[in-house]
């Protein structure tokens, strides 16, 4: 956020950011484009959902993709009274082919609009089953609730576990033991319900990434959700716990290598969600014993 404040003087406009509280998104990187008086902010969340917000002065930047999109792929919308357009789909090149093909069912959604001399574009990549999908209506809501970066509250931004603890007002516990290859990425206070989220992952350059998310919430403050998979009862120390393999937040999933462990202790509700990519598959699960070992290492 300090970087954005510095860039405002160079770009000639006040930078706006997404309302992060609603989506568990965090800023991953900021890419200024001074030559075109524009800026791109890239967001991610701990479930591999990627969103970008671009903004600038003058006309929309030249984009060959937009000129090639079939007319039926572009829809007109109104965003806070301003005209805009939404594109669902993307161009792909099949193996062995030298021509691009429009794929209308691809998991990519783009929306752009103008406000006076400013233009904005929000793009969403991927549809992970472990988080809010951020579909068309949600993107429009986010577009209509952009915030000035200097006035945005701390809730929703990545931080340290210590600062998250003070923001949420709970005694945060940190795991001593995490899966091999995992490292701490950031903490986040995604809402005002007294919840802290600790995010761990494997390195970005090590192939398909594994993630582990630990939610610590004031007991009873957040609705528990166990998806559609079978629940196995285990114990964490003296507390009863529920282990779920194949956990997902959507409908029945044909292939979901994720796993969840949930229990309550000391006035807090705990959830540990561990998942890998479909490429890694079921053999990368920690299993009940492995998940309990992480839980019992919380200090």
For the largest beta-sheet, the strand count, sense and barrel status come to: 7 strands, antiparallel
CATH class (first level) name of the largest domain? Alpha Beta
Spatial shape: globular
Instruction: Output the radius of gyration.
Output: 21 Å
**Major sheet strand order:** 2-3-4-10-9-6-5
Strands, total number: 18
Mean of the pLDDT scores? Answer: 82
- Give the assembly state of these chains: single chain
- Please report which band the strand proportion falls in: under 5%, 5-15%, 15-25%, 25-35%, 35-45% or over 45%: 35-45%
The helix/strand class is: mainly beta
Give the topology string: H per helix, E per strand.
HEEEEHEEEEEEHEHEEEEEEEH
Would you kindly provide a written description of the structure presented here, covering whatever features stand out?
- The model has no long low-confidence stretch (mean pLDDT 82).
- The longest helix is centred in the first third of the chain and has 10 residues, at 2-11.
- The chain has two domains: 2-151, Protein Transport Mog1p, Chain A (3-Layer(aba) Sandwich), CATH 3.40.1000; 161-296, Sandwich (Jelly Rolls).
- By secondary structure, it is mainly beta.
- The protein has helices at residues 2-11, 64-68, 136-143, 161-168, 287-296; strands spanning 16-17, 26-33, 38-44, 50-57, 74-79, 82-88, 90-92, 101-103, 108-115, 118-125, 147-148, 183-188, 195-201, 211-218, 231-236, 239-245, 259-265, 268-275.
- The relative contact order is 0.12.
- The strands form four sheets. The chain has a seven-stranded antiparallel sheet, with helices on one face. A seven-stranded antiparallel sheet has the order 12-13-14-18-17-16-15. Strands 1-11 form a two-stranded antiparallel sheet.
